Amino acid sequence: MRAKLSYAVTAAVLVFYFVLVGSRGVMLIQSGTLITVTFGVAVLILPVIGLWFLWKNTQFVRRANALAAELDAEGGLPVDELKRTPGGRIDRDSADEVFAQRKAETETAPDDWRSWFRLAVAYHDARDTPRARKAMQRAIALHDGRPVQQL
């Protein structure tokens, strides 16, 4: 719940910022000179890109959470079997061991979205966020029956 709340607050702050920046862009365009109109258009592009990025991220998180809920209902969520340091951080060797298991599971069932979901969690635990995201995107695509790209 805490993660959802912080995501919602961050998204709200970003939307407020995008509206603020967008209003400045409109004000520059209303000035009417060539330079201010050019800057105004350039300034309006930033909120558009930001809103697109926020939308895509929100869709990704919603889909990943839906997969997690479905996997949880099936009893297939990965169990947290990782060793922790005294400070609470995940032990790197432990994460690597679990990652090797998840990778082998995915290699034996490459078309199963569940194995890709668990691999994404293992990538995340191993602090490899880009690959975790790609693995989760593949899990989502497999679940939805869409064509998948190579990881």
Topology, please?
Layout lengths: L1 H30 L2 H41 L17 H17 L4 H13 L3 H16 L7
Oligomer: single chain
Q: What is the distance, rounded to the nearest whole angstrom, between the alpha carbons of the first and last residues?
A: 30 Å
Low-confidence stretches: none
Question: What is the number of beta strands?
Answer: 0
Shape: elongated
The helix tally amounts to: 5
Percentage beta strand: under 5%
Largest sheet data? none
Q: pLDDT average, as an integer?
A: 89
- Cα Rg: 21 Å
3D architecture notes:
Helix 1 packs antiparallel against helix 2, helix 2 crosses helix 5 and helix 4 runs antiparallel to helix 5. Helix content is 77%, strand content 0%. The chain is mostly helical and 151 residues long. The two termini are 30 Å apart.
